[in-house]
Structures are given as C-alpha cells and as structure tokens.
Amino acid sequence: MLKLPKFKAAAVQAAPIFLDTEATVDLVCRLIQEAAEKGASLVAFPEVFVSGYPYWNWVMNPIQGSPWFEKLCKSAIEVPGPEINKIARAAARHHINVVIGVNERTPHGIATLYNTLVTISDEGNILGRHRKLVPTWAEKLTWANGDAASLKVHDTRIGPLGVLACGENTNTLARFSLLSQGELVHVASYISLPVAPPDYDMAEAIRLRASAHCFEGKVFTLVSCSTISPEIVKAMSASHPEAEALLARSNSAFTGIIGPDGRVMGDPLIDKEGIVYAQIDLNRCIQPRQMHDITGHYNRFDIFDLKVNRRPMKAIRFTDLPSDQEDLP
Q: Pfam family example for this protein (predicted)?
C-alpha cells in the first residue's frame, strides 16, 4: 500500500556573514537547530549562503570587481570538506534534512568556482552536490557552468527531494528532469537581487516560478531566499559610490512554501529575515495528477524525447586509469 510522508518543513530567509565562511557555517548550524526545535524535518537555505553572493558583478565593472572575486575564491569551500562536514554533523545531531547553497571551489583549482546546492540527509550523509547549470547574466563573471552529474532526485525520509538554484527554476527541461525522476519535494534557492531591471518585481518573479513548478508537477516547493544585510551594502559601497542606492530596492526577496495547487501556504516573507514553516502532506500530490500528470499519462513520449547527459565534466581524462575510476570526483 502506498504511504506518503507527512512532515513539517522550514525555509530560511537570512543574510550570510558576508565572505566569512567560519562565521556563516556557525550561523547555519544555529538555524538548523532552531528549525529542528520547531519540529521541522527539512530546512532549506538560500543560494550560495556560504558565504555570500557576488553583488559586485552588478554594481561594478569587471576590473573594479576583480579584488572581490579573489576574496570570494578564498572564502569558497570544497565539497566534501570540513565546512560542509560540520553542517552535516549538525543535520545528524538534530535529525533534519538540509539543503544549502555554497560557493564551491574544486580541489584541483583555486579560481574555478561553482554555485552549488548541497543536499544532506537527516543522518548527516551528503546525498548530492548540484552545480548550477548556467550562471545567470552577470554571474558568468564568477561561476563556471555546472553539469548534470547530480541532477538527481534523492530518496529521503521526507520523500523524493530535488533542488535547483535561482534562475534554473525557469529552465523547463531541468525541472522536467527532476519531475520525471519522481520528485515530490522541491527546493528552490535564491538570492535577493534589487539590481534587476526597474520594471522587474523580483519577489513576485520568485513566487511565480515556484508556483508554476508546483502546479505543473503537482509537487511542494520550499523557496529560500537570502537578504542583503547592512554589512553587504557597506562593503559594496566602499568600492562603488552608487552601490547603496542600487541595493536598496524593496520587494527583492521572497521566501515561502507552496503546495501542489500552486498556492502559497501560510504567510511568506518579503525582504525581512526569519524562517517560514508549513505542514507538508505528500498525499496532496495524488489527486491533481488525475487531471494532468506530465511525467506519466498526460504526455506523449512517442513524440517528445528528452535526453540528459549526467556524465561529469572534467578538465582531463587519464587513459591509464581503470574505466571504473574515470568518473570519480
């Protein structure tokens, strides 16, 4: 008999301790404890929360922003590595699943970074490391393209869990690849971006994307978005006089939990910090699929054919390695 989980979920809206990896990891561990003590079995954190977003790409030219890129490289972490392992131990200690965004540095390089989402089980196991497939717009000055090696849905105690970072949630094929693997719980991690075009409502755009995924796929989505702290504004303003004005626009951060009907559950957070909670019942994903199950009977796979290359991208492949070791990280 099919038995689907019911659980409490939490989505964090907060600012990191800007480019201070150790302090931000400590903050993450405190927020994990807070969410667990409120009864949550899953907590979602923002995009690149460890430990900061390259806002200089939006308010400075590449030459002005270059020193900040070096700081970001030095604050980035490896996965696995001591920082993410500390977060994993907190997840195990508090028996809670965690999804968190990090700036990932490869063990074989010092200046190639990835926008990475790490999924951790409530036993403290690192289930996946998803690198953002395509950095958005000005982000291309900072992050390399990811690959689909970890574009996977993870089997957890709270159900099949998938993740995407920020603008990836507009990528129909990326979303479908998760839905087709049985995703029922989705985490969409974002950053606050006040420097978007003047007619662009970032908070509404985030909600709209998440609602679309929920309604199309009949799934639950946790949206977690960072905020811009006075510390971040001060740091950017020290290098560019217009930074404060550019980073001041409201309606730039949305955090909430959305049901399989596309509606927001409870009260979301707009711009301000906090944690949003909601009760999730995955049984609610069943009845709406009688109308359209786009990964099942409501599709034409004799017409449409999606292929996903999940082979890891590498700078080099050594021919003297046994074939079963070629794809090791």
A: CN_hydrolase
Q: Which domains does the chain have, with CATH numbers?
A: 6-291 (3.60.110.10)
At a CB cut-off of 8 Å and minimum separation 6, what does 142 contact?
54, 57, 69, 72, 113, 135
φ and ψ at residue 170, rounded to 5 degrees: -95, -5
Q: Which residue from 186, 20, 33, 179 is spatially nearest to 103, judged by alpha carbons? A: 20
The secondary structure of 176-244 as a DSSP string is HHHHTTT--EEEEEE---TTS-TT--HHHHHHHHHHHHHHHHT-EEEEEEB---HHHHHHHHHH-TTHH
For 8, 75, 111, 131, the CA distances from 146, given in Å and listed in that order, are: 31, 19, 15, 5
Q: To the nearest 10°, report the CA torsion of 315, 319, 322, 326.
A: 20
CA distance 78 to 113: 10
Provide the sign of the torsion angle of the four alpha carbons 29, 174, 225, 136, taken in this order.
positive
- Residue 313 DSSP one-character state: P
Mean pLDDT of 273-297: 98
DSSP-H helix ranges across 105-201: 172-179
Give the predicted TM-score (pTM) of the model: 0.96
- Out of 34, 37, 47, 123, the active site residue is 47
The Cα 102–Cα 76 span in angstroms is 8
Alpha helices by DSSP H, listed for 4-154, are 21-37, 56-59, 62-75, 82-94
Tokens, residue 184: 């029922």
For residue 174, count CB atoms less than 10 angstroms from its CB and return exposed for 0-12, middle for 13-18, buried for 19 or more: buried
Catalytic annotation present for 47: yes
Query: How far is C-alpha 45 from the chain's CA centre?
Result: 7
Per-residue pLDDT, averaged over 283-312, amounts to 97
Reported as a pLDDT band with limits 50, 70 and 90, residue 223 is very high
237-254, pLDDT tens digit by residue? 999 999 999 999 999 999
